[in-house]
Write a structure and sequence with these properties.
By secondary structure, the chain is of the alpha+beta class. It has seven helices and twelve strands. The structure holds biotin.
């Protein structure tokens, strides 16, 4: 799925009609809200959620001027070189399962990258993807329009939206990144040594996202968790986790069935389970 040389001449755009050509999904990406430039696809998705759009609507931008990351950080989103998107979902799952959808998005993107490029990215709990020690993708999940669901017996029509914001660094070269990111950020192109066709990768991400999402909503998250454990860059390592104003140091010993990270704090077997946070 490398980009043919001649494609270098053509403006590289993710036009909806091109993305949807050959797209195999039933509802994810069937409606695309496309922009050359946006402050943030998550912000736009929040506005759209208020209008009651169909599940699976995808907000896509070539460039973000105010791309947002987790914990109030910004996300570098230059024109035409990455995939900056937000997917609107209406999951009918238990509220405590919501963080698992972030893991699901990370797994789907990792699988798509493997299928298309044969690159094995690692998942840094809870939702970052790394290649060659550098971050190549991040996920920002937010909610909009009220409660997501009252549980499996709840009425999905009254549910709010889950906004899955996904950023993938695709075709940047290292000098494209600002100085403060250059050591930490990577891209698929850097790891592969060749430019990547964004449309093909995007279609694959959407197809795998749909497959994993439908599977998880019907059968649960065991498959997602198994993949996370297998391709985790966190498990087995001594890490520091910052969760709000709390800070934990220990060995990451498990990703539990509820998606939480278990840290062993000392040799006496004292452990703690962390549901959200930043691992370093
Ligand atoms: C992180 O790693 O901190 C999460 C980064 C999420 C970035 C994506 S890019 C598309 C979507 N729109 C945003 O403003 N952020 C997410």
């Amino acid at each position: 799925m490398l980009r043919p040389e001649s494609a270098e001449q053509k403006p590289d755009r993710l036009y909806p009609w091109e993305v949807q050509e050959g797209l195999s999904t039933r509802f994810i990406g069937r409606w695309i809200d496309y922009h050359e430039e946006l402050p943030s696809t998550n912000r736009r998705a929040k506005e759209l959620a208020a209008t009651g759009p169909p599940e699976g609507l995808l907000v896509l931008a070539e460039k973000q001027t105010g791309g947002r990351g987790r914990l109030g950080r910004s996300w570098f989103s230059p024109a035409g070189s990455g995939i900056w998107m937000t997917l609107l979902l209406k999951p009918v799952i238990l509220p405590e399962e919501m963080p698992m959808l972030t893991l699901l998005a990370a797994v789907a993107v990792a699988k798509a990258i493997f299928v298309e490029l044969k690159l094995e990215s690692l998942i840094k709990w809870p939702n970052d993807l790394y290649l060659d020690g550098r971050k190549i993708s991040g996920i920002l999940a937010e909610t909009a329009g009220g409660k997501i669901t009252a549980g499996k017996t709840g009425d999905a029509r009254e549910a709010g939206y889950l906004l899955l914001g996904i950023g993938i660094n695709v075709n940047q070269v290292s000098t494209d990144f600002p100085n403060d990111l250059r050591e930490k950020a990577g891209s698929l192109r850097i790891s592969l040594g060749a430019p990547v066709e964004r449309g093909t990768l995007l279609r694959r991400c959407l197809a795998i996202l749909e497959e994993e999402y439908v599977h998880a909503c019907e059968k649960g998250f065991a498959r997602i968790l198994a993949y996370c454990r297998q391709y985790s860059s966190t498990l087995g390592r001594r890490v520091e986790v910052i969760d709000g104003d709390r800070r934990y140091r220990g060995k990451a010993v498990a990703i539990r069935d509820d998606g939480s990270l278990e840290l062993q704090l000392n040799d006496h077997g004292e452990t703690v389970r962390i549901f959200t946070g930043e691992v370093t």
